[in-house]
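Schema walk-through. Below, the input block comes first and the output block second. Nothing else is stored per chain. Lengths vary across the set, and this one has 362 residues.
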Amino acid sequence: MPLTFEERLDRYAALLVRIGVNLQAGQRLLISTDLECAPLARLITKHAYQAGAPLVNVIWNDALTARVRFQHADPDTLSTFPQWRADLWRETAERGDAFLHVTSDDPTLLADIDVDLIDRERLGRQGPLRPFTELMRRNAFAWCRGAAPSVAWASRVFPELPVDEAVTRLWDHIFTANRVDEPDPVRAWRDHLQSLARRAEVLNERRYRTLHFRGPGTDLNVGLAETHLWVGGASPTPAGIFFAGNLPTEELFTAPHRMRVSGTVRASKPLSLSGTVVRDIELRFEDGRIVHAQASEGEAALQRALETDEGARTWVRWHSSPPSRQLPRRARFFWTACMTRMPPVTWRLDFLSEKTSSAALS
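--- output ---
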């Protein structure tokens, strides 16, 4: 008998707690999520307490309220960030609590907002949050990113469907990608993470020096760092607790040599960059740096991101998502970073900058 939606949602919440952050008895959990994700957040909270959490804190976000701020606040105040929130996140990381972010972002919400205003707000929160993000980058605590459909996001992925059907369809994809319908989803995920670890071991044994990519508009040579390691799936904290930084995930990643990336790469999928859709991205690399970048739509946002600082034009990490039975290549593009660890995205770029996020390309 097929599972009901409520049963699938409960299983998904359990996976985020047991596999995503792998919450341990006595460990606190901080959840950051959107208002539309409240039903899922409540189930996550239930499973966290059942796992032995002494306290679960929830930070509620509302994208439409954030948009109102960009529209009506004095631009000089956009860099203001509440110190209490920075302190909460820093204390979470320093104490070794678990952190779970569940997103339902509308990828085009800020498309008509001046990118200078977006930059002011982004830079204003980066400083106060730096202690948290630095510990996160070092996997000093367990963290995970998940996703839940909003009306705006679902309508973007399935524009041909009525709103209710679009939300239902997107939930189906998220549940499928997360193995929710398996007889034992937790065991299925543990087996999958072990499989990714074995693939990484094989790649590390082969010690490839260069990867060569060819495709429509793409002819790119990626030299790998001499001491590169392939990793992916689950990562350990200093205490030896393994967590999955993204659910779902099918990817492995490694480090290119910062001076040995050359050629051209073209994206067949769009990118949502700070709420602006960027299409048909084309990048040309010489000696590891981007020397030319263009896009058919949203090029100003792309150029702005690449001008953030000196490191923004240097590619420092390569991600690969092989074909998956969970989501075949014909699957829709999902517009959110959480789902870029799955096909149809085949690889992503991370740049050497504290101020730019990764770009998902296919």
